[in-house]
Design brief:
By secondary structure, this protein is mainly alpha-helical. The chain is built from 5 helices and no strands. The protein has one domain. α1 packs antiparallel against α2, α2 runs antiparallel to α3 and α4 packs antiparallel against α5. The longest helix has 32 residues.
């Protein structure tokens, strides 16, 4: 994968992750939130698919293939979840599944960077692209932290009796 492709993928990732954070954390109207979340997923999925199809050998890109599969699943879940918002009541289960997939993707990106040879950046020659990758790592860690915080809030808000001290 060339430095240009990796740079483009990193920029799209950061934009997508920031849009996901905005979609989940800001008090957006449900239909606007649906458009923002789908708008964040589609460019990431397009870039992943284009890079995956343009690479001749998929064997060294197993991690990237898994990440592409996760994004495809996330796109389907987001599409179903946000379509429910347009046509009927939102489903809490799909929101939790959407959060869990976003968390899994962010953890996969973070673990990739913490390994000695991250699967996206191991052949990069440009220092600017590596700096962009480090920024992406911090954005991924921020997504992990905020997602865990949101799940914690959900746990305490909607399940107040669970885990409470008895006395």
């Amino acid at each position: 994968m060339t430095d240009k492709k990796i740079c483009y993928l990193s920029a799209v990732y950061m934009l997508g992750l920031i849009m996901f954070l905005a979609g989940f954390s800001l008090g957006l109207h449900a239909k606007i939130r649906a458009i923002v979340l789908l708008g964040a997923t589609i460019p990431i999925l397009i870039v992943h698919t284009k890079i995956l199809l343009s690479e001749s050998s998929l064997k060294p890109m197993r991690g990237f293939s898994v990440l592409t599969l996760l994004w495809m699943i996330k796109f389907v879940v987001t599409l179903i979840n946000q379509t429910y918002i347009f046509f009927c009541n939102p489903k809490a289960f799909l929101d939790c599944l959407d959060f869990a997939l976003l968390l899994l993707i962010a953890i996969t990106i973070s673990l990739s960077f913490m390994l000695r040879t991250p699967f996206l950046y191991k052949h990069v020659k440009s220092k600017a692209v590596i700096v962009l990758g480090v920024i992406l790592l911090f954005v991924s860690l921020l997504v992990i932290a905020l997602t865990l915080l949101a799940l914690s809030w959900f746990y305490h808000e909607f399940l107040p009796g669970v885990g409470a001290k008895r006395g």
